[in-house]
Design brief:
The complex is a heterotrimer of chains A (325), B (567) and C (325).
Chain A lengths: L1 H28 L19 H10 L6 H13 L13 H36 L4 H15 L2 H12 L18 H39 L2 H8 L4 H30 L2 H7 L4 H11 L2 H29 L10
Helix pairs in contact in A: 1-12, 4-7, 4-9, 4-12, 5-7, 6-7, 6-10, 7-9, 8-9, 9-12, 10-11, 11-12
Chain B lengths: L1 H22 L10 H5 L16 E6 L16 H7 L8 E3 L9 E3 L2 E6 L5 E6 L13 H12 L6 H4 L5 E7 L2 E6 L6 H7 L28 E7 L3 E6 L12 E6 L3 H9 L5 E2 L4 H6 L8 H6 E16 L9 H10 L2 H7 L6 E2 L22 H10 L12 E2 L2 E2 L1 E6 L4 H17 L2 E6 L2 H9 L5 E7 L8 H4 L16 H11 L4 H18 L2 E14 L2 E2 L14 E2 L11
Parallel strand pairs in B: 1-10, 1-11, 16-17, 16-18
Antiparallel strand pairs in B: 2-3, 4-5, 5-7, 6-7, 8-9, 9-10, 11-19, 12-18, 12-19, 13-19, 14-15, 20-21
Chain C lengths: L1 H24 L1 H4 L6 E4 L2 E4 L1 H4 L9 H7 L2 E3 L41 H37 L1 H16 L2 H11 L6 H10 L2 H15 L2 H8 L4 H37 L11 H10 L7 H29 L4
Antiparallel strand pairs in C: 1-2, 1-3
The chains are: A mainly alpha (325), B alpha+beta (567), C mainly alpha (325).
Amino acid sequence: MRRYLVRRLVQMVPTFLGITLLTFAISHLAPGDPLQLDTESASAAGGSAAATAAFREAHGLNLPLPVQYGRWLKKILTFDFGRSLQDHRLVSEKLAEALPQTLLLALVSLFLAYLLAIPIGVHAAARPHSVLRRGLSVSLYLLYAMPTFWVAVMLLLVLGDLFPFQGLASEGAASLPLPGRILDTAWHLVLPVFCLSYPTLAVVSRQVRAAMQEALAQDYVRAARARGIPERSVIFRHALRNSLLPVVTMLGMSLPHLIGGSVVVERVFGINGMGLLAFEAISLRDYPVVMAICTLAALVTMVSVLIADLLYGLADPRIRVGEEA
Amino acid sequence: MNRRLLLALLLALTACKDKKPAQLPTAPALKPSLAWIKGELPPEVLQGTPVSGGTFTVRVPTEPLGLNRLHDQQVEGMMARYTVGSIYETLAELDRQTHPRYTLKPLLAESWEESADHLTFTIKLRKGVKFHNGEKFGSKDVKATFDAILLPTNLTNSIRSNFPELTVTATDEYTVVMTTKKAHFMHRNNLLSAVPIFPASALKGDFNTLPINRAPIGTGPFRFVSWETGKSLTYLRNDEYWGPKAYVDKVVIRFVKDETVATQLWERGEFDLMTRIQPSVWRSIEAPTPGNAWAITGYHRINFVENYYSWIGWNQERPFFADPRVRRALAMLYPGEKVAKNIDMDLELPTTCPYYRPSASCDPQVKPIGYDPTAAIALLRSAGWEDHNGDGVLDKDGAPFKFTFLANPHSVKLSKLAPLLQEEFKKVGIEMDVEKVDAAQYVGRLRAHSFDAASLGWNNNDLNTDQFQVYHSSQKTGGSNFVSYDSKAADALLEQIRDTFDDEERHALERKLHQVIYEDQPYTFLTNRPQLDAIKTHVRGIHPSLAWYDLRKVWLLPPNATPVAVP
Amino acid sequence: MRRSRLKLRGRLALWAVIALVLTAIAADLLAADLPLAVRLDGRTHWLPMLTRPVPLRGATQQALAVRAEWIWRTPVPWGPNQTFAANAAVRDTPPPWGPDGNHWLGTDELGRDVLARLIHGARVSLTVGLLSVALCVAIGLLLGGLAGYYGRGVDAVISRVTEIMITFPTLFFVLAVLGLLRISSLFPLVLVIGFTRWTDIARLVRAEVLKLKGLDFITASRALGLSDARILVRHLLPNALSPVLVAATFAVASAILIESALSFLGLGAPPPTASWGELLTQAHRYLTHPGAWWLAVFPGMCIAATVLALNELGEALRALLDPRA
C-alpha cells in the first residue's frame, strides 16, 4: 500500500512538470504584453523605455524563458506565487478571494448532484417501468444535451425576477445576522448551483442505474432474493454497495472539473471565482496568476485522481491497490 | 416532454411580459417630460438648502486595478474620477461652473504665477491642510509627488510624458517652483489640475506595491475606508476637511460590470447615481408605460457630451490607404445614418472634429462627408480602383482591394461596426476580412502599425487637448499616430499650436487644424460619446461637467421632506 | 421490445443528423440575400448567391421581386449577413426585432435574420465538430496505437502525455492557444479543439490494441514477418475502429458544445461568421430593457437538439457495434 502510494506520488512529478511547462510555454509565447496600457486615454502614449525595462527586470521578464521557468519553479516550492503583473497584489491574496466562491459553488453543487443522483439511479434500476422513472430519465437526458451557458441565460431570462442576478451575496449582507446571511447566500446559489449540478446529476444517475442493473442481475443478488431477504435489503445492502464503485471514481474525477470548468457559469452569474480570474488573467497576460491557477487546478486533479483510485480499492476489496492498477 | 417543457418556458416568458403592468394597476401611465427625454436636469436639483447626511451610492462599470492615479496601469479615464476631487486633490481644479471653457480655480494652491516666457510656475500652497492620516500638507508633498512621476523607472509614463525636462523645487514650506525648458500651452493645466498630491511619507518604497495604491490617503473632502474586491469602494466624509465640508456621510462606489445586472439593480433603486447607461436601455425606458414608472418618476436623466470621439483608422503605410481620395471614398461608404438609428439610438453625436464638441477649437463650417456610395465609386475610379478583371473585386495595378479590419475587443459598439462595414464595402467591390485579437494585443498591434484598418476612441478628461502625439508625423514611432498620418500642413499647425498661449489665437489655429485633418481623412471620424447617467430624484446639488460630478456639493433630500417649491 | 425502441431512437437521431448535414451543405440555397433564380432585364441568373453576377451586386430578393420578370426565392429570403434587412426604414425601434412575418425567428442586434444565421451557423458548428474530431481521431489512433503496440517506454511516455492533457483544464488550454493564433478564420478553433480532445480516443485505441495484440492472428502476422507498421495499420487499427466511431460521435457533440461556449465567451470565429454561440452572447446582453428572448431560445434549441441527436446516434452505434452493451 505504502509502496503504491509512493510510486503514484513519484509519478505525479513528471506530470506536474509537464503541465506547468506547457502552461508556461503557452502563456509566454502568446503574443501580447502584460504592460498593456489603457486604450481609452489618449495620454497613454508609448511606454518609456526605462520604466518598462525596470518593470520587466523586476518581474524577470527580460530573462530567457527557461531561466524564467526555473525561477518560477524555485519559488513555487516555497509556495510563493509571486505578484500579479496587473495590480501588483500577491497572487495568493487574489486566490484567497476567488477560491472560496468557487469552492462553495462546486461543493454545494457536487453534494446536491450526488445526493439526488444515487436515489434516482437506484429507483430507475429497481423500478424500470414506473412513470416517474421515465419522466426523470427523459428530462435528465434532455437537460444533459443543453449547454450550461444556455440554461444559465434562459434561467435568468425566465426567473430573473425571482432570483438575484449577480454574485453570491447581496449588497450589505455582511451586516445581517448569521441566519440571514446564510439564507441570502443560499438564495444567490440557487441558479448557479442548478447550472453546475444538472450535468453531473444526469451522468451520475445514469451511471448508478447501469451499475445497479448489472448488480441486480448477478447471481448473488438472485441468491439473496431466493433466500427470502426483503427486496429493500437486497437493493441497498447487496446491490448498491457494489454499484457505488464507478460512482466513487466519478466523484473524484468531477471535483477538478467543477473547479476549472465554471468560467461560463461564473461569467453569466457574475461570480468572481477562479474561472473568471483565470479568464481575465489570460486575456491580460498576467502570467503569475495564470501559472498559479493552473498549478492549483493540476494539483487538485492529480490528487483527486489518486484519491479516486484509492477509494476504488477500498470500495472493492477484489482490487488490491499495490498490484498493477 | 421536450415540447411541453419549451412550451412552459415560452408561457413563462409571455407571462413575464404581462406581469409588470398588472403589478402596478393604480400607477398612472406617465409621460416623461421633454427635459427627461433629452437628459437635462430640472432646475430644482440645484435649488434648496443643503442638509447633511445619507449614503450616496454610485454604480460604475469597471473595477480599477488600483487607485494610484499616477500609475500607468491605474490611470484609466473613469478611475481618476473616483478618487481625484473626493479623496485626492490637485493644486487647482477645473471650474465646473465655466463649461465649456473650464478655467482653473485654486484648490491646494492658493495662487500661482506664470513667468512671461511660460517656463516657470511659482506656486503658493494653502496652509492648514491636513492629509487623512493627520500629516500636515506642504511643499515636501508636492515635490515628492512630482519626483515620483519624474523618476524614469516608475511606471508613470502616461503622465510624465506631459512634463519633459521639468524640475520641481520647494523654496519654502509652502512655496514650490516648477521649471521647464520648453514652453507648452498645456503646461499650466497639466501641472496644476492633472496631478493629485500624495503625502510624501506614503511614496516611500516600491512604486508598484505602495499601500496607497489600494488604500489612498489624500487631503480631499472624503476619506477612504474600504475596498471590497469585486464589489465596492467606501468613502466617509472627512470632518477635518480644510474647506466647506461635504454633505453626504458616506459614498459607496459599486463595481457592476455586467450591463444587464446593473440595469436590474438600478431598477430596484439600488443606485443614487447610475452611470454609463447603454443607449438601448436608455431608449427602452422612454415608453410611457407603467413598467417604466420606476425610471420616469424615480430618476432624472443626464445626457452630457464627453470629450471623446471614436474613429476608424486607415493605416496609411498600406498602398490602398495612402491615397486621400480612397480614404474619402471609404468615409462615404460608412453608413452613418443606419448606425445612428439602429446602434447608437440617435444618442451619439456624429462628429468631424478631434476637439471637444462645444469648445471653440472645432470649426462649425466643416461639412461632414455623408453616406454616398455612388460618389464613392466615382472617387475610387478616379484613384485608379476599378474592377478591371470582372471578378467583383476592385483592383489597381493587378492588386485586389482586399484588407483586414482589426476588431476592437474593448468596445461592444465598435466591434459591431465590422459586419456593417464588411457589407457596405462588399457592395462596391472591396473585400474586408475581420480579425479578432484579445485586449492584451490590440493596442500593441496598433502601435506596431501591424494592421490595415482598426477602430478606437480618444478620450480626454480635460477640455484642452494637444493633438500632437496623435497626428504629428514624428509620432509614428513612440507616439499615438498609429495610422502613420503624414501631412506637412498639419505638422506645422501642431507645432505652432504648442507655442500659442493666447486662447483665441490658439483656437483659430485649432480650427484650421480641424479643417486640414478632416480634409485628409486619416480617420473616418465617427461620433462623440455622450455620458448617459441618471440620478435619483432626491439627489441635489449635482450637475454634469467634463470633470465629472462634484461630490462635495451633493446632498440628499431627506425622505419625508416636502420637495422644494420651484418659483 | 427495448431493443427495437433503441433502434427507433437511433434511427430518428440518424435522420436528425443527416438533416443537419444537409442544412449545412445547402445553407446557401436555404437562406441567402439573392434568390435561387431570377430573370432580370432579359437575362436569367441561376443561383446568383453563388455566382455573384455583377448586375445583381448589392441587390436583395425584396428589391429584385419588384424589378424582375420572375423570381424564384429561397425559402428564407434573407442572407445571414444582411443587416437591418426588413423595413429598417419603417421600424421605430432599433433591432433586435422580434419574430414576425418577415423574420420568423426575429433578428439580432444588427437586424440580421436569426433563422438565416441559424441555418448558416449549422455549417460552422458542423465544420468545427467534424474537422476537429477528425484531428482527434488521427492523433488518438496514432498515439493510442503506438502506446498499445509497443508498450513499455513508449507507453509510459504517451500515457504521461495523455495524463497531462487530461489534467490540463480544457478551456484554459483553448483560451491560451486562441490567444496565440490569429483568429481570422475557423481554423484555430478546429486545431485547438482537436489538440485537446484526443485523449479519450487515444486511451480507447490503446486498450483495444492491447487486447488484440495477444490474439492469434497478430502473432501469425508477426511470424509471417510483416512489419510493425503494417501490422498496426492493416490489422490492429481497423479492428479498433468501431469503438472509435462511437467515441467520435460523442466527441462531435462535445466539440460543437465547446465551439458554442467559446463563441459565447467571445472567442469564436470572427465576424460576420454566423455561429449559434454568438447569438447566445447577444441574448445575454438583451435579457431585459430591451429583452430579446428569441436570441436565447432558438440558438439554444439548435445546440441542444444537435447534441441530443449526436448523443443518441452514439448510443445507437454503441448498441449496434458492441454486443456487450
